[in-house]
Prior knowledge:
This protein is mainly alpha-helical. The protein contains five helices and two strands; from the N terminus they run αβααααβ. The chain folds into two domains: 15-55 and 113-136, no CATH class; 58-110, no CATH class.
Amino acid sequence: MRTIAVVLVVPLLLAGCGPQRPVLYLGDRPTMMARDKGERDIDACLVVGEQYRTGTGQGTEIARNTTVGGAAGGAAGAAGGAIGGSPGRGAAVGAATGAVWALMSGLLRRPPPDPGYRGAVDHCLAERGQRVIDWK
Length: 136
């Protein structure tokens, strides 16, 4: 039973974790050649974009959100535990629950591309005659 759960859940988790890529406008009737050229241009420009990253990365944001989630969960758990007569236990359960929730939410959420990276990729694609209409 556990194997079935892993086989069903892991691909779903990995699908949401990949980096975002630009979506190109290829005209009213895109041909296979236009699609192939667009993909080659995207791949080449993603490499160029790596040189222009400006942000601190997703790891810092996940750590911060996990800390905040743990603190908020601890406060809520303490309040709920006080009503039930066990504020210490409630705080511990709440903190653990809040931290795990925030950690998993951060890991599974696809972050927006770094602004410097995205700008460099968009510029590179424009120089190659491509029009970016979205990032997915």
